[in-house]
Automatic annotation (TrEMBL):
PROSITE patterns in the cross-refs: GERMIN
UniProt signal peptide: 1-26
Protein's UniProt name: Germin-like protein
Source species of the chain: Perilla frutescens var. hirtella (Perilla citriodora)
Organism classification: Eukaryota, Viridiplantae, Streptophyta, Embryophyta, Tracheophyta
Positions that bind Mn(2+): H116, H118, E123, H169
Cellular component aspect of the GO annotation: apoplast
Amino acid sequence: MKKSGIFQQLLLFLTIVVFSSLLADAYDPDPLQDFCIAVNDTKAAVFVNGKICKDPKTVTADDFYYPGGVSFPKPITNPLGSKITLVYDEILAGLNTQGVAIAYLEFAPDGLNPPHEHPRGSEIFLVLEGTLYAGLITSNPPNPNDKNPLFSKILNPGDVFVFPRGMTHFQHNIGKTKAVAIAAFNSQNPGVMTIGKSIFGSEPSVPPEILAKAFQVDQNLVEHLQSLTWTGNVN
């Protein structure tokens, strides 16, 4: 066989492999649940993104509507000094399979949305009122001994900041008045992992000796942190 014929067959094979890979990616969407335990049960219900779909014949406008859910100010009573009203698929059924969610954030003076991550969605953050200090910490520095970079900005009304999916980030009200912001996500349920609450407030608790070694602190301090009441700020 001539070299040109071998080359053409090799090129055809590589093309098929590439397109097969693209098709495989297209049929494997990002997970929108923390886990899914596989079962060999033909009687198990079929879910779409963790939900059983409503019969289209019974759908109404109310399935796409959330009346006034984020427009009525309520007292901020938690120790963090911030309050988040999240509209996601559990709140608004019409968001299922749409890949979007939104949050309305309110900060008292010195209020904090503590360091946290969204494992299933990127976030775009828009300040409406007040002055916020916002930052994100990236992963995988080039040198394992390097410190993780912090990217931060002081945000004023109209300013926008992006928090990539899975990156640890925070917002702090550094102004003297209330601050308000809106966050939008490219997931119907972006999830949230608040660092302090998840590490020191898990159930059951992480063995204190593990956390003491990981954070290079005394085990008594870890046990004290685990004894605290870790509250959230999501409505």
